Amino acid sequence: MAPSTSLRSVLAYAGNLVSQIPLQLTGGGVPNPLSSVFGPIDSTSDSGSATITPYDPFNGAPSCPVDGPISCNNQSVADSCCFIHPGGRLLLTQFWDEEVHVGGAEEDWTVHGLWPDLCDGSYDQYCGMAPHFNNITEILEHYGQGELIGYMNRYWVAKYGSNAHLWAHEYNKHATCINTLAPSCYGDNYSPGQEVVDYFAKAFGLFKMLDTYVILQQAGIEPDSEKVFELSKIQDALEEFSGGKVILNCGGRRHDILHEAWYVYFVKGSLQSGEFVPATDSFRGDHGNCARNVRYLPKKLRAH
């Protein structure tokens, strides 16, 4: 069995986003969204800035050059284990549930998924680039990821059915379309399920670096039963924080109830250890369905 990965290392998966996200430990600006939940990520440097130890994927995962091409920005197909293709536009998707799914989740946005869109804005699904798995919980437990399962049970939750069913659905629909998760990219040290850990650890690490609730709160936008917010202000706050495009989707008959936020990235290198680069270009499907003015409603207690 491959060595287990600590939750601290899992969260450090998102360390490559430090250049885009202000991880200020003191003073003004948006605070590090991880600190309120997990405490300090690591020590600080002499200059006072946060330092994060890079995540070390399982032995045999692709080791890619630092100067490799960025997905969707290269005309020729590079090393298939160090260049995500054809689904080179990655979306970290979150949703604002109308119900409190667990105690203390009144301020939680939750993970919807990590989706590899094609470079033209369309997408594939249920591919065969990586194996399909249905026993996600058992795999994470096998690799010593009990802590990660606990946090996923809070932040990656199913509205209907079980969380385990949702995770298998998300993995088989989306992760199997990410070519760098192919067993061949892990070399001779490959053991089935390593790609499952790498996918969920990456998705969850990105999610915790993009705390939508905190970002909006710092911009003076909080859930309210009466207030109406300009969509442009919500979008500006999220895009300024993430450094790239954010697609917003809304529910309700008038599409005026804020429901989803999709953060859009390219990747330089593999999914496992690559650098996520905020996407700033225009592409098909880069706009959501929200009205110009939207409501951001407080959650309701789930009926039992």
TrEMBL record:
What's the Enzyme Commission number for this chain? 4.6.1.19
**GO BP terms, alphabetized:** RNA catabolic process
Active-site annotation: 112, 170, 174
Q: Name the domain of life this protein comes from.
A: Eukaryota
Entry GO terms, CC: extracellular region
- Record keyword Hydrolase present: yes
Transmembrane portions of the chain: none
Q: Name one Pfam family in it.
A: Ribonuclease_T2
Any one GO molecular-function label of the UniProt entry: RNA binding
Q: What is this enzyme's class at the first EC digit? A: lyase
**SUPFAM superfamilies referenced in this protein's UniProt entry, alphabetically:** Ribonuclease Rh-like
Alphabetically list the UniProt keywords.
Disulfide bond, Endonuclease, Hydrolase, Nuclease
Q: Does the keyword Amino-acid biosynthesis apply?
A: no
Family that this chain belongs to: Belongs to the RNase T2 family.
Q: What is this protein called?
A: ribonuclease T2
Q: Which organism is it from?
A: Pseudomassariella vexata
Q: What taxonomic ancestry is recorded?
A: Eukaryota, Fungi, Dikarya, Ascomycota, Pezizomycotina
